[in-house]
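Input/output pair, single chain:
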Amino acid sequence: MTDSKIDTIPSGGPRLAHFSDMHVFLPKYGLSWRDILSKRVAGWANLRLAGRAWRFRHAGKVLEAFAADLNETRPDHLVFSGDAGCLGSGAEFDLALNRLGGLLQRPGVAVPGNHDHLVQRSVDNREFETRFAPWQQGIRAGEDAIYPFAQRVGGWWIIAVNSSAPTRFPWDAKGRVGAAQLARLDSLLDKLDNSPRLMVTHYPAMLQDGSPEWSSRRLLDLDKLVRTAERGGVRAWLHGHRHNAYHLPPAPGRPFALICAGSVTQTRRWSYGTYDLAQDRIRGERRRYNPESGRFESLLAFEIPLQRAVA
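Output:
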């Protein structure tokens, strides 16, 4: 790591479009013996037997409506906080990108969700990272690892952190950043200039009511990540994982705002957010899919004050 800082660029107040948890799935899966001996069996059972396929039955047409709606909201940058698919297969990622049309050609940032990194083989083969490579360009603390990385957007730094890791047991949906990535994040945050920082993960810091995520679904090293983010001057944290959208202002012991995009495609919850970033606040709009019109429409506007970073 170099001790020099990245040159400062004047702030431009960018508009972000934040979406998450597409959960695209295939009409039919050809599971191999390796898949049957992996967590993909549990993922398939969740999809076909536990109702996930029904909840996301309209994902294809909703994603097409979402792509069309971006022509109206006109964001400067897209933020995808993970779970493109259900079983972590390259074919799912290809289908998701096909439904999104040419969105991958627009500027954006993407991190994987726990369903994208469901099995170690998919992670080792970089199935997600290969497909979403245009949204994974940026500054890194070292060239030997993809995560974390930072992108400069209109006077802000967007910092992408991978919070998803394969787990062994079917009921285990916990995430982990890991000591090595936390150390790289610390170095990366130190490398950037003092412009405002926004962090993106899949896993949340807390639920809508301020309580911790369920023990089987939480981020194991959350406390360490929170301390690193606080020390590094992060002022807002965007995430997915939870399919209901919500936002929380900074609070004592947590000097950053939290925004969950919810799921862009789950039936009756389908929404995404647009955020206009200013030095002292985020002005947001939640947009919701209307099945009658086949379009996304404005649901509510909100504003979140931001704490100034301590010099």
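Residues 103 and 248 are 28 Å apart (CA to CA). Residues 1-11 have pLDDT under 50 and may be disordered.
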